Structure formats: C-alpha cells, structure tokens
Prior knowledge:
Layout: H1 2-38, H2 40-50, E1 62-65, H3 70-82, E2 89-92, H4 98-102, H5 109-119, E3 127-130, H6 136-150, E4 154-160, H7 164-174, E5 181-187, H8 201-220
Parallel strand pairs: 1-2, 1-4, 2-3, 4-5
Helix pairs in contact: 3-5, 6-7, 7-8
Amino acid sequence: xxxxxxxxxxxxxxxxxxxxxxxxxxxxxxxxxxxxxxxxxxxxxxxxxxxxxxxxxxxxxxxxxxxxxxxxxxxxxxxxxxxxxxxxxxxxxxxxxxxxxxxxxxxxxxxxxxxxxxxxxxxxxxxxxxxxxxxxxxxxxxxxxxxxxxxxxxxxxxxxxxxxxxxxxxxxxxxxxxxxxxxxxxxxxxxxxxxxxxxxxxxxxxxxxxxxxxxxxxxxx
Length: 221
C-alpha cells in the first residue's frame, strides 16, 4: 500500500511539473504574440524597408536599366545619364508581348524602356538596346557579357526600389570575379510604399513575392 501511494504522489508531482512548464511556455508565447501585435507597424515597416538596398552613386562607364517597370526605371536611368553619372544608358529585357509585335510595335522591355527615356528627355545617341533576359539572373549574365566586351570598370544598374536588394545580391554574384564594380540604384516605385505596403492587397503580394524570390535566388544562384 505505501508503495502504491508513493507512486501516486510521484506521478502527481511529475504532472504538476509538466503542467507548470507548459503554462510558462503558453504565457511566453502569448507575450510574444502581444508584443508582435503592439509593435506590428514598425516591424512591418522594417520588413518593407529591408527589401530596399542601393549603393552610393559614382561615375560609371555605363548605366544599365533592367527590364520591367519601364516608367520608373527608365525615367530614373535617363535622369542619371543627364546628371552625368554615365555617358549612356543600356536597356535590357526580352519581348514580353507578341501581340504588340504583330502590329509592328517594339514591345521588348528594352524598347519600352528606351521610349520612356526618350520621353524623359534623353537623346537616342545616349541609349543602347540589349534586348536579352527574361529574369534577373539572365539579365545579369547579359550585362556581364556586355560590360566585359567594352572593358567597363564600373557600371550602374537601375531597378525598382523593392527589387534592389535582390538585384544587388544577384549582380554581386554575377560579378564576383571583381572585374567590374556594380552600383545598384533604386528607382522610386509608383505602386510600392515601404511605410505601409501591408495596407493594400497589391502591396502584400509584391512583398510576399519578393521575399520568396530572395530565398529562391539565394539558394539557386
């Protein structure tokens, strides 16, 4: 009888210890959740700001405007060339729309970018088309080959601000031999606001996709 009683007390004590541990863990979890909720705005803002990463401007041999978002990127590229940071801009990107080509419209990302730059006041003599690449990695490879062909020591790469960290990451790897210094510059986006991206469905999709791409390129490239 005493042995059974002792076993009962022992099991009861173990159960109390286990309950106490799980109570502490649940309390800690609830505290973390509460802190995240209280500081959700600055945390979300930091998450949006993290995607933006650019380098200080210096004079370069060439400036490359990556395909996509031509209104923002090409306009910024034109502004930098006009400001004297590079003698000319090279526009990259493959054709995205075959239907437009049927009507004789140059729908390549490079062509669209050049048109926007022209509307921004940049003369055609300061532009060059490099209609290659359907992804950041492909564009980085095309830019590396082009820059090597002219012996460029320093280049400026213009992308949209919330793509800038990933673009910087991809181009750093593409030029890891140190043959060319890559300066990444971020054009302001008309659709992205790092301070309140979570307030719209579009902003949430953009940030989610960009973080997924960051992980993908970190693992694959």
